[in-house]
Structure formats: structure tokens, C-alpha cells
Amino acid sequence: MAALVALKREQHQSLYIQEGAENSFASSQHLLNLKIHEVGHAGTSLPVFLMKDPKSGVWRVSAVTSFAMGTNLFVEDNQWQPTFKPLAMQTFPFFLMKAEGEGKGYTVGIDPESNAFSEQSGDTIFTDEGKASQRLMKATQLLEASIEQDIQTYQFGQAINDLGLVKAINLVIHRPDGSQETLQGLCTIDEDKLNALSGEQLKSLSDKGYLAPMYAILMSIYQLNSLIRRNNLDQRFNTISEIKIAVNSGNSFS
């Protein structure tokens, strides 16, 4: 993605949003980042894992949508299949960016060169009167709320890391011909350590609203079965016979 620019009526009045732009965007995303409040809904359709950003060291919560980079098994004929739609798709092609000037806060940014936009047809960004369209207003509200949600997601990651509840795993993909492929970099909740917490620790997690998404992450791992079925129905990909989950004991986190 090119560098974002601040969305301005004077410069971008003529732009339209292509129909299904958010689905086209998602179709090339094998991972979709989630906010902590989305995990419960996401886990009913998608396998959800924790990942540590190698640059910032911040814990991310992401839904896995494919076993191959740059693809998404949940977009068919440019239509998103699950009933749950991640916030990252709902706000696309708008993004939150730092406003110009020190202490200016945040503003809505776009990549005007993106294929999401057209100058011929689609959903309007601004009305003929120069006011924000309904779509832009909704996206702006969601983006503004996401600032606090990002903080909550960051705090969630820090809390489970501090309690030693992050477990690094590998997904070992087995093919019918006997070949194997290992996907690394994924983490989940260490259920044994979670169950070993004191009543006071569990209450603290519950009071912060962390227990529900933790259990949702654990349960979502069964959605790998759905992902395997989708993979095996798609002729672009090699058939998977099974996936085994192995603990990656070589990873430690701090």
C-alpha cells in the first residue's frame, strides 16, 4: 500500500468507492487483524491466533483465512462468506492516520492510487453539497472508536503475556502424498496455565473482560477444520489430509 494522504473534500470530491472494494481487499489477506472485542464473533467462523509483531513487539490478534500468503479462502466470487465482518473490512478503504502538525491527533486517510477508488462510478465519499456521505460517516465513527479498541487490544496482549499465558505453536500440514509443511509464528492461550491461575487472578481477568476472548481464541482453533475443507474445495491449492498442532518450545516471550 502506498503512503496514506489525509482525506480532503477539495482533493477527493471526484472519487467513488468501487463496489465490493472491501472484499477485493480481503481476498489478498491471509491474515486479518482483529480488535479484542471482535474475537468472540470472529471465533465462530475463523481460527484466531495471537502473533507478536517482530518490529514493535506488540501482540496482535489475527484471524487466519488461508494457508497460503496473499489468499483468502473466505472470499468467493468477490463475496465475503462469514456473517461476521472484521472492522478492518468495514472501514476499508479508509484508515486512521496522524494528522499533519504536532498535537493534531488523528484524521481519516486514504490511498488515492488504490484500485478501491474510481472516478466513474461507485459509492460516493462526499455528497454533491460537499458533505460526508453516509458511508464515510459510518467509517469515521468506527475508526474513531478503534483508537480506544486498539488500546484495549494492546492491554490484553500485555496482560496475558505478563501472566505467561501465551503458548507458541506450529501448524504441521500433512498432504496425502506424505509431504509436510510447517507454519510458524502463531500463538494461542496456554489452557493449562490458564486453569492454574488463582481465583484472584481469574477474577481480575474477568473484570477486565479478558476471559471471554481468551476462551474464544481457544475454541476457535476448531475452525481450522473449516479452513481445511475450504482449502480442499479450492483447485488453486494442494489437498490437505490433516493438520497437527505442535507446541513450539523454542519460543519464549517477555
SSE arrangement:
Elements: E1 5-6, H1 9-12, E2 16-17, H2 21-26, E3 31-34, H3 39-42, E4 48-52, E5 59-64, E6 75-76, E7 79-80, H4 87-90, E8 95-98, E9 106-110, E10 117-118, E11 123-124, H5 134-162, E12 166-174, E13 180-189, H6 191-195, H7 199-207, H8 211-220, H9 224-233, E14 242-247
Organism: Thalassotalea euphylliae
Protein name: SapC family protein
InterPro entries: SapC
Question: Can you walk me through this structure?
Answer:
By secondary structure, the chain is an alpha+beta fold. The protein has one domain (5-247). 32% of the residues lie in helices and 24% in strands. It contains nine helices and 14 strands. The protein has helices at residues 9-12, 21-26, 39-42, 87-90, 134-162, 191-195, 199-207, 211-220, 224-233; strands spanning 5-6, 16-17, 31-34, 48-52, 59-64, 75-76, 79-80, 95-98, 106-110, 117-118, 123-124, 166-174, 180-189, 242-247. The strands form five sheets. A three-stranded antiparallel sheet has the order 1-9-8, with helices on one face. A three-stranded antiparallel sheet has the order 10-2-11, with no helix packed on it. The two termini are 31 Å apart.
